[in-house]
Write a structure and sequence with these properties.
By secondary structure, the protein is an alpha/beta fold. It has eleven helices and 13 strands.
Amino acid sequence: MYKLAVVILNWNGVKYLKEFIPFLVKYSSINDVGLFVADNGSTDESVNELKVNHPEINLILLEQNFGFAEGYNKALEKIDSEYFVLLNSDVEVTENWIEPLLKLMDSDKNIAACMPKIMDYYKRDYFEYAGAAGGFIDKYGYPFCRGRIFNEIEKDNGQYNNLESIFWASGACLFIRKEIYFKAGGLDNNFFAHMEEIDLCWRIKNMGYKIMFCPESRIYHVGGGTLAMNHPRKTYLNFRNNLYLLYKNLENKNFFSLMFFRFTLDGIAGLKFLFGFEFSNFLAVIKAHFSFYANVSKFKIKRKKNINELFINYTYPERKNYSIVYQFFVKNHKNYSELSEK
């Protein structure tokens, strides 16, 4: 049994493996730390690259591309470790990246998960989109980060160099207790990709555990390695999965009013795509909603299970009581430090 297993899920990412596995090996060769790559049915030279050049990496071979969520679930079932780190293949780790995270998790059994500071691989003094300095969510279910709101990215001037309790930790580098990962149900296979880590973190928060941001650990993330930011497929997954996220995890008290308001906001976003001549993204929003409606019965079962088995706590300060859409587009608050409840 390992103390910690670092697990990369790979699909046709030989380019990133060649570039970033050497950093992982160099800075993660610590006692009781196992390094794993779970290959999601790649058809490129990924597996051969690891077998020939990195025999120190433990290979888990999956027979097809199961997506991010199911791929990780299948891989992690095969690993015996106290902690997991779910690490994207397009991440450059740095010296001493593991130790602060491990120390933090060992210090408090009520901390279920944590994440490092995630920086942009190309603009290295700027935060990176997928997590930045810790994730939060607004009252209508829109995720955002310290250091990143929508597509507005902040420069790291040390403004978030404090240990902080957060709502969600990024799937680009998610440090989590194995026991709680499986107790919470793992990543939801129906998400396939995008926002599945936020769904998992929401369940963990509702179970009464803490999720933390650790500024002493730093990684660099390429981002957009699978889908570009404005790709219609990404638009589809983000809109659909955000509805899944809300439907599964909202408390009964505000469920109908918040879902209705979110439908309205999605309609406005769709019209914005239409009038901006982004027809593919407009159709992606429509497709996302039809997919959600078609799967409501499936998610009714999951919602009932969450409420009956997992929910202990519904209120915590990391779920903000304001609209990030209003803060950003109306009040012109582009940085996290400018946000307010008023």
